[in-house]
Specification:
Order of helices and strands: EHEEHEH
Radius of gyration: 13 Å
Strand content: 35-45%
CATH topology: Alpha-Beta Plaits
Number of domains: 1
Number of strands: 4
CATH superfamily: ACT domain
Structural class: alpha+beta
Shape: globular
Largest sheet: 4 strands, antiparallel
Distance between the termini: 25 Å
Strand order of the largest sheet: 2-3-1-4
CATH class: Alpha Beta
């Protein structure tokens, strides 16, 4: 299963490292990553593949929320198929 992971919050050192470490620790492959900082606001989106993961999407959401709380940013993970359906234009 693929998921969309988003991170939004005030920029600070270590955000990408922290999220990437969680992915590596749980054998989640990062397929695509895009990040930008606009006016001091950090915004990142990742497409990840949980096919070989040792964690499911619900547990991943919990781990990411806890890390986001620790870093002062909002981190979310959504099933990519559901994300795509919710954001389909037309």
């Amino acid at each position: 299963m693929k998921a969309v992971v988003t991170v939004v919050g005030v920029d600070r050192t270590g955000i990408i490292a922290a999220v990437s470490t969680i992915m590596a620790d749980h054998k989640i492959n990062i397929e695509t990553i895009n990040q930008v900082i606009l006016g001091g606001i950090f915004n990142m989106a990742m497409i990840v593949d949980l096919a070989d993961a040792d964690i499911d999407i619900d547990a991943l959401q919990t781990v990411l929320k806890e890390k986001g709380d620790e870093l002062g940013v909002e981190i979310r993970a959504q099933n990519k198929a559901i994300f795509d359906a919710m954001h389909r234009v037309g």
